[in-house]
Amino acid sequence: xxxxxxxxxxxxxxxxxxxxxxxxxxxxxxxxxxxxxxxxxxxxxxxxxxxxxxxxxxxxxxxxxxxxxxxxxxxxxxxxxxxxxxxxxxxxxxxxxxxxxxxxxxxxxxxxxxxxxxxxxxxxxxxxxxxxxxxxxxxxxxxxxxxxxxxxxxxxxxxxxxxxxxxxxxxxxxxxxxxxxxx
Amino acid sequence: xxxxxxxxxxxxxxxxxxxxxxxxxxxxxxxxxxxxxxxxxxxxxxxxxxxxxxxxxxxxxxxxxxxxxxxxxxxxxxxxxxxxxxxxxxxxxxxxxxxxxxxxxxxxxxxxxxxxxxxxxxxxxxxxxxxxxxxxxxxxxxxxxxxxxxxxxxxxxx
Lengths: 183, 158
Ligand code: SF4
Hints:
The complex is a heterodimer of chains A (183) and B (158).
Chain A: H1 29-35, H2 39-48, E1 53-54, H3 61-68, E2 82-83, E3 91-95, H4 103-112, E4 118-122, H5 124-128, E5 148-152, H6 159-174
Parallel strand pairs in A: 1-2, 3-4, 4-5
Helix pairs in contact in A: 2-6, 3-6
Chain B: H1 3-13, E1 18-25, E2 28-33, H2 38-48, E3 53-62, E4 67-75, E5 82-90, E6 95-97, H3 106-117, E7 120-122
Parallel strand pairs in B: 2-5, 6-7
Antiparallel strand pairs in B: 1-2, 3-4, 4-5
The complex binds iron/sulfur cluster.
């Protein structure tokens, strides 16, 4: 596997200057301007109502994550749709323990997701280590690695808790208090 | 053939390399073996005594005795006897012959025991870490004196 760098906000300086047929810009003037206007409210309204999430079931919490996306809870009515490709997704749900071996892959998934993107910490393991808080094989303090917007405690939390987390994330986005938009 | 005749046959075949034999019941035997002979003993068990199924293989760390014990639990498809073999290795240089040529399913057991305890299996076909990341090789996390547990953790709990 290729080297995976630490997660950093999209670095404007890193953008390639010359792509044939494509106009690139290294400035975010347009989006900075939009943030000051009422148009951002409309954009956020659109964003908050289409929170597609990646299906990466990591621990036992992953089972709840999967069943949330199924027909019983029907999250599609909120615009919350499970996506199998990180490139289609807006929300990364850290659903369980992050082992040291899996962390690079998770960072890679996060890097592949197009901005704006959000993180939900789902389950005790992702928040504080949970039952594995002293394990030799898990990475701890995930909140220092990813910009987490919503924490869902529980071992595992119920599917309703995950839907609640999405609702809170929607409220955060509408209130422009979320961390993910900057990514 | 019951447990007693089996272990008699085994001890007469390998005199001196099998010791501390205890027949716990009709279906349980526990014995210690010399590490050098483990492969031959397994071969004999499989071919002659129809112990065809290696249930598991793992290690136990005894820092006080300065020993690592490799444990083989071997069962059979033809009779109900379960045999537990223990091979005692020195803790600073645990090396033992691989039993993969006899029991192919020992492959992953040995890889896991290697990455967690540092038991080196000689003539193993592919001795790589199995589930741990490569960087952790050499830390042997299941040894009792492992120190690498995270200490900067769960700030909201403690
Ligand atoms: S929080 Fe509990 S249910 Fe969720 S991954 Fe950890 S141990 Fe499993």
